Structure prediction request, 526 residues.
Amino acid sequence: MTECLSIKKASEWATAYLRRKVTTSNIAYLVQYGQIPKVYENGSTQIKKADLVAYYERVGSARELKWRDQLGCDLNWTLSFVEYKESETTKHVHRLHPYKGKFIPQLVAYFLDTHTDSFKREVFFRRGDTVLDPFCGSGTTLVQANELGIHALGIDISAFNALISNVKVEAYDWADVRKTAREITSGFIDFLSTRRTMAFENKLLSALKDFNQRYFPAPEYRLKVRRKQIDERVYAMEREAEFLPLYNGLVKEYGIALTQKGSERFLDKWFIREIRADIDFVWEAIKKVQNEKTRQILSVVLSRTIRSCRATRHSDLGTLLEPQFTPYYCKKHGKICKPLFSILNWWNRYVADTVKRLVQFDKLRTPTSQICLTGDSRAIDLVSELEAKNPAFAIRIKNKKIDGIFSSPPYVGLIDYHEQHAYSYDLFGFKRRDDLEIGPLYKGQGIEARKRYVQGVADVLNHSKKYLKRDYDVFLIANDKYGLYPTIAQSAGMRIVNQYKRPVLNRVEKDRNAYAEIVFHLKEMH
Prediction:
């Protein structure tokens, strides 16, 4: 007889089997989304142990063998950090704001901390050292350096990237942050009480709940789709068409405004008019906050909030396709979903989450300096810029110089780093400097684009060398599918002394295809 397990017992068994924590929520998720069928014993939900084994074999060891076959036997599986849950790879301030293309903190810590193992056989950085990240992005290197008692300096051409990097490592007056957030929320609720949006959305949610329970019961619907008993595409189109008249009727009844007049700016095109009114109200309230640090952290909370409230399908959050102003079939959730009509819930959620994460990081904080400067890493005068913002740090770099670099340069032709946060550039009025990005998506991946990329990264390294001490260590993370980094190293007067090829298992874009990146270790040319 096949052994059956309760959800709790299944989580305990999976934890021992995988040698990493598997929660009851993890198991329930697999059941809810049809990855594992459920059975009933004595009225309680059970799952077959054999089904659980088959699932983990399918996505675990089979994946490792498949990836090694596709990517080569030189994969360093230790650096996959597969043993960490998502909550650990997005711990504390690392999840203050979404950012496409960032690396996980465990990878940074692996090379910055003082441990050694069979792969990392020497210590590269120690407490009190200074590390430079000339492609700072969302500040992962800065945060991990702080945890490890290492000073860190970041540079980024994007003003928004510098903002989110700096708010992560800043210290705050918690009483003022909480008090100010409560005051803004209270005024926001008063503002919403004068509108019909919330009553409309409550009516819509009730109608959707009944509709989805009738046509998309979980997990039965998912299982039927997986077993090909339902043609998902045809069925979804029919249900969308069936629900649309009800939705249109509610929009008319409550006088809900959908589209805005203009479509030139991001804020005009990608937000329902009711959402835009919410954004403008909260932003005006934040701009009046006197405490600069409080104002900045709440600005980032608002940015995170409005990103979640764009008029798009859930499946298109990473790469926007077309604005979505009507309910639609959501492949991700297996039911009819709707656009948002108020930012209130997300604002409340992210305020609470942000404060919690900042408090968590505060317990780990070390008395070291971290800052991200906005500028071009090929030409910026680090000392002059620092003298205006952190004079003591400027003196440290002049006297002791920088011990090394840990960074992930942009990949050639993959991401437009300004465009991914276009909503915040519109809202905050930051100056965009897309033309100074190295390897942006809009310039493609052709031969000329690759040449410009090689020159750009090499220029950054050459410029950085004037601030580096002798016998520096440089670590650059890249998916070097075009084999550009040997040329980059040579152009920068550096040599590649080692490289670690690691599988990337949990990509932000949810791409399940085999994918690897290389950690290049460079030193000065002798």
Q: What stands out?
A: The chain has a mean pLDDT of 90. Residues 423 and 510 are 22 Å apart (CA to CA). The two ends are 68 Å apart (CA to CA).
